[in-house]
Amino acid sequence: MTPTLETKYVFTITARIGDVITAGETGIGVRRIIPIIGGEVTGAITGKVLPFGADFQTIRPNELIDLEAKYAFETDDGAVVYIENKGMRFGPVELLQKLKRGEPVDPKLIYFRTVPKFETGHETYRWLMQHIFVGSAARHADRVVIDVHQVV
Taking the CB of residue 59, how many other CB atoms lie within 10 A of it? Predict the structure, then answer.
């Protein structure tokens, strides 16, 4: 018998975002690049999102959005943690278009899930590299909020 799959909440990443840059229709969808300009980490780990990196998105013709964000945060005790966070966002077309325009949408109405992978050389946080995590996220006009859960 295999172990039961469970998750536990660990921390929240709030990534502030800059203006969207669009590379246009590439043949597989519209490529967008969204700069990550700062933010904070709260919960079992605390710190600040560093002001570099971006979310590289492809918006498919059916409005499903493939996301791949690469950025880093620094913990309050000085560790730098690199993140590659892949995921998807999908929901009713009219609500996704409202989000694109920066208008508020109830996050419960949008499926926005991610799988963050972490890298760090800091011994205290090596456990981040030894587990699988999933994120439940919400997009706001000026930020993305991701609740990170550890798969146990």
Answer: 19
Model's pTM, two decimal places?
0.93
CATH code that applies to domain 7-151: 2.40.160.20
**What is the Cα–Cα distance from 134 to 5, expressed in whole angstroms?**
12
Q: Name the residue ranges covered by the structural domains of the chain.
A: 7-151
Rounded to a whole number of angstroms, the CA Rg of the chain reads: 16
Query: For the chain, how far is it from start to end, CA to CA, in angstroms?
Result: 16
Average pLDDT over residues 132-141: 94
The SS3 call for residue 19 is: coil
Give strand ranges (E) for 18-128. 21-25, 30-43, 47-49, 54-59, 65-75, 80-90, 111-119
Segment 68-120, tens digit of pLDDT: 999 999 999 999 999 999 999 999 988 988 887 878 889 999 999 999 999 99
- What torsion, rounded to 10 degrees, do the Cα atoms 136, 16, 14, 46 define? 150
